[in-house]
Amino acid sequence: MQELSPIESSAFKSLNKVITWFIILRWIACTGVALVLLLSYYFFHFPLQYKILSTTTLFVILLNFIYSLYFYNYKKQYLQRREIHLFFQIQIISDYFLLLILVYFSGFMDNPLIYFFSFHIIITSFLFTSRIVTIYTTLLIVLIGSLSILQYLMVIPTYPLFIRCLTKTPVILLTQTLGLSALLIITAYLTTSIINKIDARGKQFEVELKRYKSLDKIKSNFILQVTHEIRGPLAAISGFHEMILRGITGEIKDHTRDIITKADRRTDNLLIIIGEMIDFAYMKSSDDSTFKTKEFSVRKIISENISNVTTRAEQEDVHLSVACPRHLKIKTNRDLINIILGNLLFNAIKYTEAGGNVSLIASEKGHEIHLVIEDTGIGICDDEIEKVFDEFYRSRRARVLEKDGTGLGLSIVQKAVNALQGRIIVYSKEGKGSSFHVFLPAYIDKGKIPGGENAEDINN
């Protein structure tokens, strides 16, 4: 069986919509032909073969009704790949045949409707390969040419649209036939040429895109490797700072302690920046299809992420509160959900002043897990909310509060949420805090914990 054109093959699901338009346009055409026949018979009194034309129109209506029943009722507006190909072939062949009958019995070459074949050729060109279009066009020209010759030789009768067209000279017949044939050939050639050029450009674009993605992946892998190598020594330096500050190496003077404390703080900032770069490179170098999923307890994942930021919260004098039902489960990628929670919790603590609050609430919303990370921090200006997920963007107040930072945190979060087929929404008011709402698809198991609907504090 022949293939549809390569362009349409890559998106064959959308062809079901084209079938809908085929059927709708055929209903419109049937209505138009029926009205023309009525007007011709009752008002203009054209000498047409009304019985044959009316019967053909009724047959088209019946045929389109069968197409509609098959497509809308039996197939529920969705056909498989081979079914689409076959259904298009049947419709186009029947349209060619029935249109030829209509124009033959109503003036043939004098009937303006005969030029509608050019539109059918265009549609065929967009749906099928050049080989199929060439076959259809050739057969159509041969058929029209044969009918013209047979009419001239009076082997078959002529049904003129107007009385004055009863007789024609060979020159007129030849001119009309050649003109129509040229129109069909040029239409088929130009349409298929344009489609082939678009297809070639599309393939070239795909090659360039693959090359770009390959280079981008190499760059991300390089960043991932380098940042991993840098993080080890920096973590060791931070550990040595901590040992000195605890007095393990002996007593130190206050001035020395201040310098080492500042150095330790700068080292921690560098580790945070490197951590963001590692997450960013990880998201860039990985494909959504490579992220493996597994079922986890939402409560357990949250507890692990809370424990990672507890020390930081204590240092900043920020109160943490968490609520999550015990029964909540999620089938997800552990690395990605840790990236989401880790970045949002760290940012919330980072931009909340001493004495402030940060809360994390998990709940079930239909078939989704709804995670809310809320803080009483500096907030975000209205004109900056739409930009916070852009790569390397930092709000004005964030830059004033802390000069160091990559502006990658929220961009990484959004990429991770998208990779998990979720969504993220932010609400914020400058000076009054922010709340980030993350919705992730989940697997909920309510049966194991009776009354598990009610959230309870993890800290209890």
Structure write-up:
The protein is α+β, with helices and mostly antiparallel strands. It has two domains: 6-168; 289-457, Heat Shock Protein 90, CATH 3.30.565.10. 60% of the residues lie in helices and 11% in strands. The strands form two sheets. Strands 6-7-5-4-2-8 form a six-stranded mixed β-sheet, with helices on one face. It has a two-stranded antiparallel ribbon with strand order 1-3. It is elongated and about 120 Å long. The relative contact order is 0.06.
Quick take:
The protein has helices at residues 6-9, 15-44, 50-74, 81-104, 117-127, 130-152, 170-245, 254-285, 298-316, 334-350, 396-401, 409-419; strands at residues 294-297, 319-324, 329-332, 357-365, 368-375, 423-429, 433-441, 456-457.
Give the CATH level 1 class of the largest domain: Alpha Beta
Mean pLDDT: 78
Strand percent estimate = 5-15%
Morphology call? elongated
Percent helix, as a range, is: 55-70%
CATH architecture identity of the largest domain: 2-Layer Sandwich
Unreliable residue stretches = 1-11, 444-460
As for the CATH topology of the largest domain, it is: Heat Shock Protein 90
Please indicate the count of domains. Answer: 2
* Number of strand elements: 8
Task: State the strand order across the main sheet.
Answer: 6-7-5-4-2-8
Order of helices and strands: HHHHHHHHEHEEHEEHHEEE
Biggest beta-sheet profile: 6 strands, mixed
Q: Helices and strands: which structural class?
A: alpha+beta
What is the rounded Rg?
Answer: 36 Å
Number of helical segments with 4 or more residues: 12
Alpha carbon gap, first and last residue: 67 Å
- The CATH homologous superfamily of the largest domain corresponds to Histidine kinase-like ATPase, C-terminal domain
